[in-house]
Amino acid sequence: MLALALGTLLAVGALAFVLFPLFAGSPRATRRASAPRMSAERDAVAALREIEFDRETGKLSPADYDALRVRYTKQALDAMRRDASPVSADEVAEAAIRAYRARLECPSCGPRLEPDAVYCSSCGRRLAA
User: Fold this and answer.
1) Do both 103 and 126 map to the same domain?
2) What is the 3-state secondary structure (H, E, C) of the chain?
3) Rounded to the nearest 5°, which phi and psi values hold at 106?
4) Helices 27-34 and 36-56, axial angle in degrees (round to 10)
5) Domain assignment present for 90
6) Cα 95 to Cα 118: distance, rounded to the nearest angstrom
7) 129 domain residue, yes or no
8) Which pLDDT tens digit goes with each residue over 42-66?
9) Which domain holds residue 92?
């Protein structure tokens, strides 16, 4: 009797393990939903690869290939330009330096020497994290 109950429990557990991905949804779907910007670029690049393969295997005429290549290349470039940051690397570095220096100053006393202090050593005020 114990063996039958244990076997049934094991079978139900294995069935639940196998069927869980069907009912829980795939992690790929959640990753795609969280990154829609990269999707347009990847789709255009995948389409370029597909038409290149079709041209090499003879499924696509040279005229059709040229028209599709121009269209998909434009789509990929547009997606990359949308994603490109208008801020230069120097501006990003300067902003990081300003944030670090602001963390090293007490609002009432000014600059401090202790970079890892949580409280100002002069006035005792809590510093920004």
Assistant:
1) yes
2) CHHHHHHHHHHHHHHHHHHHHHHHCCHHHHHHHHCHHHHHHHHHHHHHHHHHHHHHCCCCCHHHHHHHHHHHHHHHHHHHHHHCCCCCHHHHHHHHHHHHHHHCEECCCEECCCCCCCECCCCCCECCC
3) -90, 135
4) 110
5) yes
6) 22
7) yes
8) 888 889 999 999 999 999 999 999 9
9) 86-129
In the prediction, which pLDDT does 11 show? 92
What total of structural domains would you count in the chain?
2
Can you give the pTM of this predicted structure? 0.39
69 in the same domain as 41: yes
Do 79 and 98 lie in a common domain?
no
Please tell me the distance from the alpha carbon of residue 98 to that of residue 20, in angstroms, as a whole number: 49
- Give per-residue pLDDT as tens, 63-112: 999 999 999 999 888 888 877 666 777 888 888 888 877 777 777 887 76
Confidence of residue 34 (pLDDT cuts 50, 70, 90): very low
